[in-house]
Design a protein that fits this description.
The protein is 61% helix and 7% strand. It has helices spanning 3-34, 38-43, 50-59, 83-96, 108-124, 136-146; strands spanning 101-105, 131-135.
Length: 147
């Protein structure tokens, strides 16, 4: 995880969010723009907010020249600020780089919802085997079984 990888992260994220936006908004956007409502069609695009992109860049060490490894990170993201989008995009980036990504949550419902948000993207990039969403208790059980 060196400077070369960190320099590619913004480009990888751009590709991930392009696929995500097309998958999540494509039909609605096309329907509105073909109907002549360009302004509304642009507002319909499901795309990341600037703070989500900045969070991911910080998480991956971009802009930190002294970091030559993927350091542990702790970030507070409040309710409604896009944890689902951040986790999904981070999982895609890590999987594309050959890592396994495990996204955990206290709630089965939220875990399934978040996975569903990015399922098509995981399929498009053919990384489904590298990404797993689960409850935190399931992670604990899996770790206990592995020992």
């Amino acid at each position: 995880w060196g400077e070369e990888v960190k320099q590619q992260i913004p480009y990888i994220l751009a590709g991930v969010f392009t696929v995500f936006t097309i998958r999540r908004s494509g039909e609605s956007y096309n329907r509105l723009s073909n109907g002549g409502n360009i302004e509304m069609s642009t507002k319909m695009l499901m795309k990341p907010h600037n703070i989500q992109v900045l969070t991911l860049l910080s998480l991956f060490g971009c802009g930190s020249p002294s970091s030559i490894s993927l350091d542990s990170q702790l970030m507070q993201i409040r309710t409604g600020e896009g944890k689902s989008m951040i986790l999904g995009a981070a999982a895609v980036v890590l999987a594309l780089l050959g890592f396994k990504a495990r996204c955990v949550c206290y709630s089965e419902y939220l875990s399934e919802r978040d996975f569903g948000l990015f399922r098509d993207v995981f399929d498009d990039f053919k990384i489904m085997e590298y990404v797993k969403y689960s409850k935190i208790t399931t992670l604990s059980e899996d770790n206990t079984k592995a020992k």
